Amino acid sequence: MATETVILAYSGGLDTSCILKWLLDKQYEVICVLADVGQKEDFTAAEKKALKIGAKKVIVADVKQSFVEDYIWPAVQMGLVYEERYLLGTSLARPCISVALIEVAREYGAKYLAHGATGKGNDQVRFELCAYALKPDLKIIAPWRDVKFCCQFQGRQDLIAYAQQHGIEVSAKPATPWSTDANILHISYESGILEDPNTVAPENLYQMTVDPMTRAPCNPIRLVIQFDRGLPSSVEDLAGRRVYTKPLEMLDFLNRLGGFYGIGRIDIVENRFVGLKSRGVYETPGGTILFAAHQDLEVFALDREVLRTKQVLRDRMADYLAEQRVSGKVTVELAPGYSRAVARKASNNVGALYNEQLVSMDVHGGYVPQDAGGFIAINAVRIREHVRAFGAYEVPTKKN
User: Which residues form the Arginosuccinate synthase-like N-terminal domain (predicted)?
Assistant: First the structure.
């Protein structure tokens, strides 16, 4: 019987290195796919490690440009944010990585796809649904849902011991066993000591940002971000007098500058798709700056009801029609730990919904103040009806 080929979503980290060895022990032929989504990784070293463990082949798929242009930029355009705080750094990367995995599976005629996602998390859902959408006949090997694997490995401590036993080099140590996932948009940290939500994350955990309270510059800096139909189109460094127009360069610059100011750190407990609550620590410097600038321009450019509808539906938006009018530039000020919009200008009169004369307190500008009486009367109908049906609102009596 011929040996079956497995495509492994490989990261070079603890879990997938141990899973590679485990698959080899199961007599599979393994092709590792290491997706370059902008993480600071020594891909040559990771490739050598996988080959040393026994992988038949290691493919490094450079998908950085696609990740930024096809996933991150549309997410900025739609204003996607999960539970009001998380900018979806890992969530956006997984479909992009899945496309690379399926391309390799098709090229080598592989029937199996393996991943190291935990059975308690969201990544298993992301990888597998993407795989079934792109190659429905693919079979999934998910070790963290395999009974024998789970009996052998309770968690990261067992994996660390297994790695040491088989001479697999990993960066995780028993003293600092948190899990890290990095890409050009963010770095996430979870597991280990972070599983106790009452434990403060140590400062040496952070890799993209400096401590905003102790190491960020005191003097703020300003830059201008241009948007075209809701998509970032340029970033102007006012201090350095340089303009960035390529998406990768734009995000890289914002990451460096945002990290220098300690922008984009969050420490949250969130709801996983599978029903569990989990604690995660995230660094998203460039994404945080883009989100703040885009949000400011949206409020400036969109009609009130369009904006409200978009906010309600943003996690389910199938098209970007509302973004046709979100074009312009936003001047952003960076200071220790935060970024804020300080000025904004729409492109080519697209932002005509903001009428400076109409809103001015110095001239009427075509506004008829007397009309406000009718507007108030119409909006008061429901209040009057409530009073008619249930009586007047009672003002609480102050106690002496």
Answer: 6-169
Largest CA distance in the chain: 90
Q: What CATH superfamily is the domain 5-165? A: HUPs (3.40.50.620)
Specify the length of the chain in residues: 400
94 annotated active-site: yes
Among 58, 90, 54, CA closest to 75: 90
Shortest CA distance to 104 belongs to which of 62, 51, 59, 46? 59
Task: Indicate the domain borders of the chain.
Answer: 5-165, 179-314, 328-390
Same-fold call for 5-165 versus 179-314: no
SS3 assignment, position 256: helix
Taking the C-alpha atoms of residue 1 and residue 112, their distance in angstroms, rounded to an integer, is: 16
The residue annotated as part of the active site, out of 17, 179, 327, 339, is 179
Q: Is 158 a catalytic residue?
A: no
Q: Is 141 exposed, middle or buried (0-12, 13-18, 19+ CB in 10 A)?
A: buried
CA distance 209 to 258: 7
Output the six-digit token pair for 394.
């009672």
Among 11, 15, 98, 327, the one annotated catalytic: 15
Tell me which residue of 112, 117, 177, 107 sits closest to 143, measured CA to CA. 117
Pair 14, 156: CB distance under 8 Å: yes
> How far apart are the C-alpha atoms of 115 and 36, rounded to whole Å?
16
Helix (H) or strand (E) holding 164: helix 156-165
Q: What is the pLDDT along the chain (400 residues), one digit of tens a residue?
A: 568 999 999 999 889 999 999 999 999 999 999 999 999 999 999 999 999 999 999 999 999 999 999 999 999 999 999 888 999 999 999 999 999 999 999 999 999 999 999 888 889 989 998 999 999 999 999 999 999 999 999 887 899 899 999 999 877 666 566 888 999 999 999 988 889 888 899 999 999 999 999 999 999 999 999 999 999 999 999 999 999 999 999 999 999 999 999 999 999 998 888 778 889 999 999 999 999 999 999 999 888 888 888 887 776 653 333 355 678 888 888 888 888 888 888 886 655 566 767 766 677 778 777 787 777 778 778 778 888 888 877 766 666 5
Catalytic residue among 11, 17, 123, 327: 123
15 is catalytic: yes
Catalytic residue among 11, 17, 94, 279: 94
The CATH number given to 179-314 is 3.90.1260.10
